[in-house]
Amino acid sequence: MSGNTAWSYLDTLLIAIISFHVIFSPFTKVEESFTIQAIHDILKYGITDVSQYDHIQFPGVVPRSFIGPLVIAYLTKPFIWASKFFSNDDSSPTAFECQLLARAMIGLTNGLSLLYLKNEGQKLLDSQEETKPPEKRKQSTIGFWFLVFLISQFHLIYYSSRSLPNFVLALPLSNIAIAWALKGDFEWSIFLYAFSATVFRLELGAMCVSFALLSLAFKKVPLYKVIKFGIIGAGLGSGLTITVDSHFWQRRIFPEMEAFLFNIVQGQSSKWGTQSFWAYFNGYLLMMFLPPTVLFLNYLGFQVSPDNLYIVGIASYLYIFILSLQPHKEWRFIIYSVPPITLLGSNGASYLFGYLDTKSFKSKFICFCLALSPVVSFAISMIFLYISSLNYAGGNALQQFNAMIIQNNVTNATVHMDVPTCMTGATLFGQLNDNYGIVYDKTEGDKLADLWPSFDYLISAISDPTSLPKEDNSTEWELVQTTKGFGGINVPYLTEKFSHQYRNGFSVVDELFEAQSLDPLLEILKNVIID
Question: Using an 8 Å Cβ cutoff, are 310 and 109 in contact?
Fold first, then answer.
């Protein structure tokens, strides 16, 4: 018996859904700014002279590695060349289209790594079935369920194309390391985690420790190999990041070590908020798995999984436990555990569908709930996608400004973008090319007052022009355009709607069937969002 690991329609759908998120929500936020600006500078200026790079003027709180942006930029470059070759327009692709291409490449690396993990999981379960007598063999559908659960998720899919450091090569390499562990190559998994931790995200060191401990406990790898492969991985990673990043930062630097000293040793990360030890378990995991079907299925998954998948599952939860010791918590820090937890739950779902007696009412009810769960999850995901797309007022405002400049043939002007604008989507990719002569200023602090008279336009979160500073005897600022952003949930509207019109809870479903469209639901969604 051998499972089908060839490219399938669901594989295509996974990549398509990730791409859809790129198009529907094209802008980036402040947490993504270093990587997306670095990709822009590499594509525009090359790698020899970094004097014009954005990080020279805006270095950020702690330095990050350029290796991830460097890889994504060079993977994106052939597509930019191809676009120029096949286009009759000299300006194609535009800078913003290049941003979409770069984000699509980030999404592709994550998507392909998830598919690789899926295939290795399918092979593992197929090989387990082959050890059974022919009459007891069942076709494993772990790969099918893995894709179904992935496609219906929000956080993993939405952020797979985003330039957060956790998703730029860190997550793909983590998925590859997990796939190697499923194949039984635990020593190479430890090597890859040690390498990735020193180059991309230091929290992957906790995943490396988890896999090392479980490999030793289950006697998969002897101690000397754990130490050997861990040291080699960390050594190669350290040498690579010090060499490459010292060039880009123009000083001797080890970015992840500086981040570790700043955030953990000095405790600076706690300034961004602290949470209880159990926040990942009783908060963030439940938030990422809505409804928590996959988490419930993990219980069965642990019982019916072969050793390698069992170890991967335990290591993933141990990783979350280790990170729980750090007071400052963010959901993206544990994103590397989401694919293996999903895979474990997928094996539980595969077992249920393969061994339940579908003739009984109880079995039919379980199968119905299991099949309904991804549908509910996908509906929630689409709502979250719509809400999340409203969080980029700065990106929308910059596009509106550029359209106004082109429409009115404005040249040689200076526009200042304030901090909220830059934090909510305004990137270097969003700026017009040099032919227009538009200067995009991002000055902050005390220097801003001296430059204020030189600004012709302002993109700001301040909506009242009269509250803006002006020079004596100069004209008042004039509000030209406005853009909207997410302002919260209209709770009174929901209360009114569901306490009267949809009081019985099922009338909204009846209305959808009568309308034979999603218009009633879209109307609710439109009115429930405050912008």
Answer: no
